[in-house]
Amino acid sequence: MNPFPRIGKEWTVFLDRDGVINRRRVDDYVKHIDEWDWLTDSLESIVKLSHEVKRVVVVTNQQGIGKGVMTEQDLKEVHEMMLKAVKAKGGEIAAVLHCPHLKSDACDCRKPKIGMFLQAQQMYPDIRPAHCVMVGDSSSDMEWAQKAGMWSVAVGGEAKGGDIQVASLWDFVKIFEEDVR
């Protein structure tokens, strides 16, 4: 029996970016479009999710900006490419929120702090934590979900503490599809 709740049209799915949507660059950042590498079936997963839930929101820590190895414009171009690719396949990402600060900065937006969740709630006042799920690949993503009062899906083996554990975003979509049948 699947302990995970039935997800439907009133839900918001939050997705971490690096390690969930695109391949994480070890000790580096996706600074330009040519460094982007979609994970297997992640594009199709986002498209499917966007048809079944109210909205998909990407939330991503991007301290490469704070380190000066990339700019806000570099990140914007990468995200515009990602959004266009999803749209070209018939899907939609409602918003992409990011934290540009260093881990050492005392900001409220860097996961696991919930500043990006609060920002999403300001953008979409109908967001209710009980109808939200975070899909991430790190323990900070799982902690973020817990602090915000939402469900969590741990992708890969590094994230600890998720309500469920899956190998990939596609595997979460397969569980979700089984649940809606």
Write a short abstract of this structure.
The chain has helices at 42-52, 63-66, 72-88, 115-123, 139-148, 169-180, and strands at 12-15, 55-61, 95-99, 132-136, 151-155, 164-166. With 181 residues, it is an alpha/beta fold.
Description:
There is one protein chain. The chain has 6 helices and 6 strands; from the N terminus they run βαβααβαβαββα. Helices cover 35% and strands 16% of the residues. The protein has a single domain, classed as 3-Layer(aba) Sandwich (Rossmann fold). β1, α1 and β2 form a beta-alpha-beta unit. The longest helix has 17 residues. The protein has a 6-stranded parallel beta sheet with strand order 3-2-1-4-5-6, sandwiched between helices. With 181 residues, the chain is α/β, with parallel strands linked by helices.
What descriptive keywords fit this protein?
181 residues, alpha/beta, globular, 35% helix, 6 helices, 6-stranded parallel beta sheet, Rossmann fold
Strand-helix topology:
Layout: E1 12-15, H1 42-52, E2 55-61, H2 63-66, H3 72-88, E3 95-99, H4 115-123, E4 132-136, H5 139-148, E5 151-155, E6 164-166, H6 169-180
Parallel strand pairs: 1-2, 1-4, 2-3, 4-5, 5-6
Strand order of the largest sheet: 3-2-1-4-5-6
Approximately what portion of the residues adopt beta-strand conformation? 15-25%
State the helix count: 6
CATH class: Alpha Beta
Strand and helix order:
EHEHHEHEHEEH
What's the overall average pLDDT, rounded? 94
Q: Estimate the global geometry from the Cα principal axes.
A: globular
In total, the number of domains comes to 1
CATH superfamily: HAD superfamily/HAD-like
Question: What name is given to the CATH topology?
Answer: Rossmann fold
Radius of gyration from the alpha-carbon trace, in angstroms = 15 Å
CATH architecture: 3-Layer(aba) Sandwich
